[in-house]
Specification:
By secondary structure, the chain is mainly α. The protein has helices spanning 2-18, 22-40, 42-62, 68-98, 104-117. The chain is 86% helix and 0% strand.
Length: 118
């Protein structure tokens, strides 16, 4: 779980710095997380959104940055941050359910602190 949080944080904050229009992808992702979570559950949704994000990031990295491909590459980046925003939002819910109530707040604070340091 620590490794998943680490790599998702690196990808989330890395993509947020690169893509200028990340708010266009992140705002709907937060609302869509709730809807998809009720329909698919935590684990399939986490796996699916990580694969979705990875696929579009890989596709965007393989495209050339010339002409119309520049727009398609930017769209792939926006879809990549969309998938990672859903995953990152889901990890907050998933991590909170793993810890007992007595240590939950401390564990969430430490997770946020480590994620921000990356």
């Amino acid at each position: 779980m620590v490794a998943i949080n680490f790599f998702c944080a690196v990808m989330y904050y890395g993509l947020s710095m690169i893509v200028v229009l990340n708010a266009v992808a992140e705002i709907p992702a937060y609302g869509l997380t709730v809807i998809l979570l009720e329909k698919f559950g935590r684990k399939p949704l986490a796996i699916g959104t990580m694969c979705f994000s990875g696929l579009f990031c890989l596709l965007g990295s393989l495209l050339r940055n010339v002409g119309v491909w520049k727009l398609i590459r930017m769209l792939c980046g926006i879809l990549g941050i969309f998938g990672m925003a859903v995953t990152y939002n889901l990890l907050f819910i998933y991590t909170a359910e793993l810890f007992p109530t007595m240590v939950r707040n401390q564990a969430e604070r430490e997770k946020l602190c480590i994620d921000e340091m990356l």
